[in-house]
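stage 2 :: seqdesign
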């Protein structure tokens, strides 16, 4: 809109948010002293659709190494998985996957 002879300029193009959302993101489950191993296996099966073997493998990785990357992909879906895992009382975080 022009007022009193001044023209409106368009805002500068910002690419930072696009860059932050683009690329691959990891959902990482961290070890905690609260949840039973069997509970973590059940959550992985229910939320991530893992079979028993894969769920147990990731649970043991969390238990023994303190963390496990349970999913990798686009940020929006990663955020949804992390949020859902948190709702099940697991400690889940997002990390940018810099290898992609």
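stage 2 :: out
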């Amino acid at each position: 809109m022009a007022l009193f002879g001044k023209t409106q300029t368009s805002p500068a193009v910002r690419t930072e948010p696009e860059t932050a959302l683009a690329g691959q993101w990891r959902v990482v489950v961290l070890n905690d002293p609260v949840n039973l191993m069997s509970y973590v296996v059940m959550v992985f099966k229910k939320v991530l659709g893992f079979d028993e073997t894969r769920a147990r493998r990731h649970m043991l990785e969390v238990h023994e190494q303190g963390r496990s990357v349970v999913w990798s992909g686009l940020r929006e879906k990663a955020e949804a998985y992390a949020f859902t895992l948190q709702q099940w009382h697991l400690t889940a975080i997002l990390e940018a996957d810099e290898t992609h």
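stage 3 :: structure notes
- The beta strands are 24-30, 67-73, 91-97.
- Residues 21-97 form a domain with the Ribosomal Protein L30; Chain: A, fold (CATH 3.30.1390.10).
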